[in-house]
Amino acid sequence: MKTALPAVEGGEPVREEFLPFATPSVGEDEIAEVVETLRSGWLTVGPRTKRFEEMIAGYVGVARAAALSSCTAGLHLGMIALGVEEGDEVILPALNFVAGPNCAIHLGATPVLVDVDPETLNVTPEILAAAITERTKLIVPVHYGGRPIDIDGIMEVARSRGIPVLGDAAHALGSDYGGRKVGSVADATSFSFYVTKGITTGEGGSLTSPNPDLVERVGVLSLHGMSSGAWNRYSARGSWFYEIHEAGYKYNMNDIQAAIGVHQMKKIDEFRDRREKIARIFDRGLRSEEAISVPSSSESSGHAWHLYPIRLRTQALKVDRDSFIGCLRDEGIGTSVHFIPVHYHDYYSKRLGYKRGSFPVTETFFEHAVSLPIYPSMSDADANDVVEAVTKLLAYYRR
Ligand SMILES: Cc1ncc(COP(=O)(O)O)c(C=O)c1O
Q1: Binding site membership of 142 for ligand 1 (Cβ less than 6 Å)
Q2: How far is the CA of 167 from the centre of ligand 1 (A)?
Q3: How does pLDDT run across 232-264, given as a tens digit for each residue?
Q4: Which of 130, 227, 234, 256 is deepest in the core (most CB within 10 A)?
Q5: 73 CA distance to ligand 1 centroid (A)?
Q6: Which stretches within the chain are classed as H helix?
């Protein structure tokens, strides 16, 4: 059989219309609610933010959730609430976005990076146990791509040493550990509602915890440390008076964001299920390709399918990872890479002194990984186009 010529070599692209790597699914309900919010005259934190917090808490299965300006804000405030101070060590995966490490640095703590498991791409209890020292104050595991961490194993290692766990669930609203939602077990968990995430508020985040007092403190810290938010001060039954209990931050969500969020939350399971269906289309179409591997998914893991990274076996191909991404773009398919290892960034390599080769799984993964588009508004035809473009390139560039 003749192999089709890739678009980059002058052939016909699989798609005329570019399929972006990610697009949010925002409907008429969100638009109408934002307009109503603007007409209401109440734009800052108020009744919609409160409703959104209740929806998150109810969904995750905890008493309280704090709505924030971002997941990064939740990581920062979660670290403070869990006691991170100057001179402490905070353990985080090297396969990570810089948000968590940056927050540790802001607090004068040292991010201690660790490698991940080659199959799940998550940290494991064994990896964490080996990295704990007398100075370890906090563990911040990432639920990579929406795949839940081994929570029981990790909590056991952490609890046996008296160290709290702050989950970085930027990718993982909707993930669960066989019946227990991510966000309900770790000491605190931070979610992202950035525009590419499981649900979006444009920018936004939320911190949840089984401990309502911790969430209360994070809520106060998110508004300057004020005893009373704007709703309690400016609404009809409010009072102008407030006190400052500690020097807080300005990390609150507002009602315009929450107006989007309350409708997104109604669709969270539908969104997650659609992502899973796309993952299954990719599995079926790509699993038998020898020059790549597809993500493994344990049947018992409630994966949120925020990411679907394939790994190229570049020794079986005539192109490298970066060229493969360029070829996919020319076929009309947007992709991305998650993540540039933290210690590859100039600031972190200088600051922490990790050399290349320190985290072999993270580094090998990064050099071979391509995140395929996976989001609820993709049709089956879109997903099949992704499969077609990948298989077409693999056939052409096979060694
Ligand atoms: C693993 C991880 N943590 C944290 C964040 C930060 O999220 P936000 O943009 O909501 O602060 C991201 C963002 O992509 C992420 O991928």
Answers
A1: yes
A2: 12
A3: 777 777 788 888 989 999 999 999 999 999 999
A4: 256
A5: 10
A6: 28-40, 47-60, 71-81, 99-106, 125-131, 151-160, 212-221, 230-234, 255-266, 268-286, 321-330, 346-352, 360-368, 380-397
189 lines ligand 1 (CB under 6 A): no
Residues 6+ apart with CB under 8 A from 10: none
Structure tokens at 153: 């194993």
Q: How far is the CA of 61 from the centre of ligand 1 (A)?
A: 22
Tens-digit pLDDT profile for residues 265-310: 999 999 999 999 999 999 999 999 999 999 987 666 799 999 999 9
CATH, domain range 7-22+269-335+373-397 = 3.90.1150.10
Q: Does ligand 1 come within 6 angstroms of the Cβ of 93?
A: no
Ligand 1 contact, 194 CB (< 6 A)? yes
- pLDDT digits 0-9 by tens, 47-100: 999 999 999 999 999 999 999 999 999 999 999 999 999 999 999 999 999 999
Q: Is residue 210 a contact partner of residue 185, using CB atoms and an 8 Å limit? A: yes
Domain ranges of the chain: 7-22+269-335+373-397, 28-267
Q: Where are the beta strands (DSSP E) in 140-187?
A: 166-169, 176-177, 180-181
Asked if residue 71 has its Cβ within 6 Å of ligand 1, the reply is yes
Give dist(CA 87, CA 94) in Å, integer. Answer: 20
Which of 90, 147, 192 to mutate to test ligand 1, by most ligand atoms within 8 A of the CB atom?
Answer: 192
**Which is the closest atom of ligand 1 to the Cα of 142?**
1
Calculate how far, in angstroms, residue 72's C-alpha sits from the geometric centre of ligand 1: 6
pTM of the shown model: 0.97
> Would you place residue 314 in the very low, low, confident or very high pLDDT band (cuts 50, 70, 90)?
very high
Overall fold of domain 28-267: Aspartate Aminotransferase; domain 2 (3.40.640)
Is 392 annotated as catalytic?
no
* Catalytic choice (2, 197, 350, 355): 197
Q: Matching CATH topology for 7-22+269-335+373-397 and 28-267?
A: no
* Ligand 1 centroid to residue 316 C-alpha, Å: 33
d(CA 96, CA 141): 9
